[in-house]
Amino acid sequence: MKERLPAGMPIKDQQTTRNGAMIAVRDLRKAIGDEEILRGVDLDVAVGETLAIIGRSGGGKSVLLKHLIGLMQPDAGEIWVAGKNITGMSERQLTGIRQKVGILFQSGALFDSMTVEENIAFPLREAGMRDVSAMRARVNEVLELVELQGENSKMPESLSGGMRKRVGLARAIIRQPSCVLYDEPTSGLDPVVSDSINHLIRRLQERFQITSIVVTHDMKSAMQVADRIAYLHEGRIYFDGTPTELQQCDDPIIQDFLLGRSEAAPHQDRAG
Q: Alpha helix (H) ranges present in the chain?
């Protein structure tokens, strides 16, 4: 049985794309300058699934993630989110999509001049919410979810790296999204804090059936959180399977990546 969110945090009905996936990418292509970064990406993410996207540094993982929420527009291809093709949507049209899809940026992207509570409440104010008591109640609910109860008045400068990530995640889920995108959620964190972030990602998926896409270079993290792992190689999805299937794959390109070996003739992508 699906667990209910705390009072005031009902989970959104999760619409799906034409093929039943929460997110579907078809033949996605993107060049930056003279360099082709994405060269025909095809990908499906099922409702309630956690997908980890891995790949070499500079291989286009973050570029792909930004396309999924309309922060970048493709040169060609389609991106379907919650039943709608977002390709070519205006900023106004994307507003509704971004309510369904939250994002945790690599840095946390907190406003340094705002308290923890003000940072988390920012999306609610942007959406037109004016009831201060209701906003504070919602903030307290998500702070409890990310295990930061009572930290409302702290400023970002006083937070550890792990706490900043948790505050960023609280802000990402404050509008009750159906899907959360994570850009290198454990980057710069020590192993203990990284492990706690991984458990939090997994717990949100298991308790609330949130669809999650995790871009990471951390293989331990990918193995911990993912139902499926997609390996982005030279602008395309080279491997798509379970963590166990990835570990057992004897393909030389996969083995080179898993063992941290450079390829004989690596493709030099420069985008993140």
A: 61-67, 91-100, 116-126, 132-145, 161-173, 191-208, 219-225, 243-248, 252-258
Q: Does the residue 70 lie in any domain?
A: yes
Q: How many CB atoms lie within 10 A of CB 19?
A: 10
Q: Where residue 53 sits, what CATH number does that domain have?
A: 3.40.50.300
pLDDT at 263: 61
Instruction: Decide: helix, strand or coil at residue 250.
Output: coil
pLDDT tens track for 96-112: 888 889 899 876 688 99
State pLDDT tens for residues 247-268: 999 999 999 999 887 765 444 4
pTM, entire model: 0.84
CA distances from 141 to 101, 121, 128, 163, 215 (A): 19, 11, 19, 16, 26
Which residue type occupies 75?
D
- Separation of CA 234 from chain center: 21
Pair 37, 271: CB distance under 8 Å:
yes
